[in-house]
Write a structure and sequence with these properties.
Elements (H helix, E strand, L loop, with lengths): L24 H16 L6 E7 L27 E4 L5 H14 L5 E6 L8 H11 L6 H15 L6
């Protein structure tokens, strides 16, 4: 038995696709937030919940992406903001969380933002920083040596 889905999308936006060298993740989220709220014609103070679908948190310097929409409108500062991660379905998962908040009466309006920044000028450094952020510090030297050896051994067959 499936539940009846009650709720509607009253505004939307999406940023341009591409490398977007001049925009960081926060700029993308702020732009999408502003344009979606303007399209909806909703007063930001009426938004009762914010959900940000974001998978790639290890690749950005600021791991608190759920607060980024609040930077666009001070009126959002009292709305609970949540980051939702579900791999490639993070945006859809955020939408379902917002729908649940509306259905149960927690919010009349909810803002959903899905965002990823997939291009980084120094990708190798960013990947290593993300990896080492989740590495046991006592094994750091051993792990670093392992990756350096892999780079040496496989550099000719995987130059990227």
């Amino acid at each position: 038995m499936s539940a009846s889905i009650q709720g509607q999308i009253v505004g939307w936006s999406h940023t341009r696709f591409g490398r977007l060298d001049g925009q960081d993740l926060e700029a993308l989220i702020r732009q999408a937030t502003r344009e979606a709220i303007e399209h909806a014609g909703v007063d930001p103070a009426e938004i009762g919940a914010v959900y940000v679908g974001h998978f790639n948190a290890g690749m950005v310097a600021d791991g608190f992406v759920s607060s980024m929409p609040l930077q666009e409108y001070p009126q959002l500062r009292f709305a609970p903001a949540t980051r939702v991660e579900n791999a490639c379905a993070s945006g859809s998962a955020a939408l379902y969380q917002a729908l649940a908040a509306v259905q149960c009466g927690q919010a009349r309006y909810a803002l959903v933002v899905g965002a990823e920044k997939m291009f980084y000028p120094d990708k190798k450094t960013e990947m290593m920083n993300a990896f080492f952020g989740g590495t046991d510090i006592h094994l750091l030297r051993q792990t670093w040596d392992f990756f350096c050896q892999q780079e040496t051994d496989h550099g000719s067959i995987n130059p990227g």
